Amino acid sequence: MPSPSAETVSPPLEVSPLEWLESSLLEFAGSLGDGAWLSVALILLGSVLLARFVQWASRRYLGSRGEEETFGRAAFTEVHTPLAITVALLGVYFSLAVLDLLESVVVGLIGTVLVVLWARASIRIGRHWIEMLQEGEATYEFAPMFGNLWTIVVAISSVLLLVSIWDLEVTPFLASAGVIGIVIGFAAQDAIGNLIGGVALYFDNTYKLGDVIRVEDDMRGTVTDVGIRSTTVLTEDNLLVTVPNAMLNSTQVVNESAPQRHMRLRIPITAAYGTDYELVEELVLEVCEECPLVLDSPSPKLLFKEFGDSALVFELRVYINHPLVEKRAIDRINRGVYDAFEDAGITIPFPQRELSFLEDDVGYEFDERTVTDESPADRD
């Protein structure tokens, strides 16, 4: 008996693998004659065994990975159950096809179950990915926004698949959706602007949670939450301020915590003319060494900046470990410098002017026409 050619074994190019497998099973059941139920039993048994094998292999894989939480482990945890159910439902599908009991309603129900299962698994995998990104690099603090977008994409794709499975007529709905979309677009311009602003802030890596930012010199605070629409900032007065992302994207934002947490302060210091500037430097640096808020590295420096109108002007440059301790550090340094100068007898001058009056030997002569007893109203 001649062996079947490759053309009779492999599926034609114009036929999908699922249709080819279904037709092959029908031919196999027809060759059995009255033994169609035997083929159904074999298909169901094979699908159940394959589903069991998938679960067993999944447990073996997860067990071999230990307790380490990785994205691959989390994804496989969410996928292995839908995969086993998919294998079992495919067995039911082919069994009904062999018995010629495959109705459109049954196909729709099976497809709906599969779409819901895989949509749920996809959303959960996306959430695991977002969580791992947040636990890792701080660069991904905007990741929750993309997690929400991923959920929306999966939901829309699932709805489109269900529409295709049930072969629904969607033309009237599309027309209505177009009109509704235009109305919503005009009504939600601000929300869309904030969303786009949030995406731009994410890619620019402007700030992250815990950073101290200054917005156009009007507001300064710590970033406590970054959302799709807005960013929440805790000010120095312990007030929560919600700032739209569109505003942050269009204005100047100074991140005082980047690229590093420590921050340099510039503190002006004055001393009276005639003061030994080396003594001033020695006293100021001793105050910085005793202040716990000042970092040792980079080391503090005192610069002789200029000759002022009434004093020698110095500038102290020190580093602190966090922007939020700026005012406390300035307060302690100023107190320490004042006490040190007072003990050393150094005067801190206040703004003053020296006026000199020059006496003219010639003097001035006034005639009667210049100085009179008449009032301006009595003059002609």
From TrEMBL:
Residues 266-348 form the Mechanosensitive ion channel MscS C-terminal domain. Keywords: Cell membrane, Membrane, Transmembrane, Transmembrane helix. GO terms for cellular component: plasma membrane. The lineage of its organism: Archaea, Methanobacteriati, Methanobacteriota, Stenosarchaea group, Halobacteria. Signal peptide: none annotated. Pfam families: MS_channel_2nd (PF00924), MS_channel_3rd (PF21082). The chain crosses the membrane at residues 35-54, 75-95, 101-121, 142-166, 178-203. Residues 190-256 form the Mechanosensitive ion channel MscS domain. It is a multi-pass membrane protein. InterPro entries: LSM_dom_sf, MS_channel_C, MscS_archaea/bacteria_type, MscS_beta-dom_sf, MscS_channel_2nd, MscS_channel_C_sf, MscS_channel_TM-2. Its main location: membrane. GO terms for molecular function: mechanosensitive monoatomic ion channel activity. SUPFAM superfamilies: Mechanosensitive channel protein MscS (YggB), C-terminal domain, Mechanosensitive channel protein MscS (YggB), transmembrane region, Sm-like ribonucleoproteins. Belongs to the MscS (TC 1.A.23) family. Gene3D superfamilies: 1.10.287.1260, 2.30.30.60, 3.30.70.100. This is Mechanosensitive ion channel. It is found in: Cell membrane.
